[in-house]
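Field reference: sequence -> structure
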Amino acid sequence: MNVLVDFARTGRIGPLHCGMPLTEAEDLLGPGRPHPAIRMIPDIDGYPYAWNGLELVITQRLVSGIWISLRPGATAKLPPLVLPDSESYPSAVLREDLISGLDGAGCRHDVNDRLTFGEQSSILTQPANVCAVFGTPGRDAHVPDHDRFYLSVLHKHTA
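Structure field:
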């Protein structure tokens, strides 16, 4: 939870931040798994490099977006730089638990109307402008309550 709250509050994951060169990120994380489009057209922009549940969107060889993707009820895998002392953890993060963590850290957040509809809700944190998207899990998800909202992605993009 601390990693998620810190990212939502600061827009950074440890030394990872938007605007840094891909080479610097790979020095910290090891080589990423590029999107197949990058393999076909190496200079293409806007596609992610992945390190399991962590994705960095790359534009002009710079990090333009950071994503932490979770699948409620599954085990999330993140690089040790992101989640020290553990490479994987259960990824059932309830909306109210993240919001409580943000409130406890003094991180302001507002409803993101653009991504709140039906079985999905979203918030934007301030001043870091990190977006959290929550949804109800599928029937096959191993979670205690299928009617509650769980975090599915936490992401930041540069303009």
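Note: The beta strands are 33-34, 47-51, 54-59, 62-69, 75-77, 88-90, 108-111, 120-126, 131-135, 150-157.
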